[in-house]
Amino acid sequence: MEKTRVAIVGMGTVGTGVARLLLDHGDRLARHAGRVLWLEKAVVRDLSRDRGIDLPSGILTTDLSEVLDHPQIEVVAHLIGGIEPARTIMLQLLESGKDVVTANKALLAQHGEELFDRARSLGRTIAFEASVGGGIPIIANISQCFSANQVVSLRGILNGTSNYIISQMSDRGVEYVTALSRAQQLGYAEADPSMDVDGSDAAQKLAILAHLAFGVRVSWRDIHRQGLEAFELEDIRYAFELGYRIRLLATAQLIDDNLELHVSPTLVRIGRPLAEVRGAYNAITVVGDAVGDMFFHGQGAGQMPTASAVVADMIDTASGRTNITFRRLQLWSDRQCAIEMIPYSKTAGRYYLRFIVADEPGVLSQITGILGWHRISISSIIQHEPSENQDERYVPLVIMTHECTEADAAKAHAEIRKLPSVGMHSVRLRVYEAGH
Ligand code: NAP
Ligand code: HSE
Asked: Are 188 and 301 in contact (CB under 8 A)?
């Protein structure tokens, strides 16, 4: 059988998983690729670090030029995180004639245009299934299987670390800091986990999906995003009491040919598939105008699920399939796109509001008055007795609104916070009701 020589650059969580699949399941991969995928080199920074894997001698190197200058290495799994030196290394790989497979969404979301242009001009390819949704084949599905459709909306839990943290906190009562540290130990988190928990990682993935599904080229930094800092354990409890779970939801929705994009901690009704996604699992609902809605669910982070997507891309690249789709899709190219972004303030939805208010006459009417003045209709209000160790002069007040614009919700929220009987500490979250 013919042989395609491959290399890995970056042997961390994902790179090590890729090496495991290549070395332990070579026969299976060869059957699927129609050729042997032969691991020739693996580039690391530190040869002495234990990676929990025995590599045949001569594979591990700290010298990237052993890959760049190796004329027979055709496909390289680029598994370094962050922007630099990841960007420079990817350009070097392309320039030295390698086809690249990557899981680095931060890099694609920031430099997709430059990298794809360069790959095209050099006649090379970049495959990136693992960059969104870990093991879920969402890139292939949106870019190929939905091609008879106009995608109408796309909603997903795109960050495994934050979903793991929320699940641990809500289902097991684990503290935030402990849950984050477990996510790091399990290999879910980015080297800088603040990108996971502040919504940036999900925004990078949403920018990639929005490009595939709608053709828009949006900088992930322009996507409005909030992360886990926006709520507390008690919001998880109040949401549950109201029949919802909080999930960090990435939303792309076409409204009158314009696109709403944001990443927001959102109340999702219990029982809806997105509400029931636990741990480091990701899920994405995609609605196409012909096919209707589809739900994708699977492990969105972690060594072997992500390696599964990387190796599938390596097989597609070695067998020539990537070359066909890469040329057809013309991603991050000069193609014009008529779709405009809807400013975040003009998006609409229901809201969950929580305030700490003085337990005295007239406070509720002041708050409802402000909401009414901004044309915001209230769907429900909960006020609890203070618990035993709480200051009994103050009580939590939780309000669910009917649909209103983000601008009205934000203005009303800000005005309520200025009331003398309302504490500055408050929470405002979106609520997602319809469909999945
Ligand atoms: P990681 O565990 O931090 O591994 C990154 C590896 O890159 C490290 O082993 C590091 O080497 C190596 N590296 C950094 N700079 C290098 C250089 N100049 N030359 C050679 N090696 C270099 O990260 P990871 O979790 O495997 O993630 C890799 C990529 O996949 C990231 O872009 C991440 O966003 C993405 N991703 C990760 C997951 C996941 O679940 N972990 C899922 C989907 C996508 P040392 O070991 O010597 O420090
Ligand atoms: N840090 C990412 C996450 C890895 O937790 O989802 C998968 O992209």
From this structure: yes
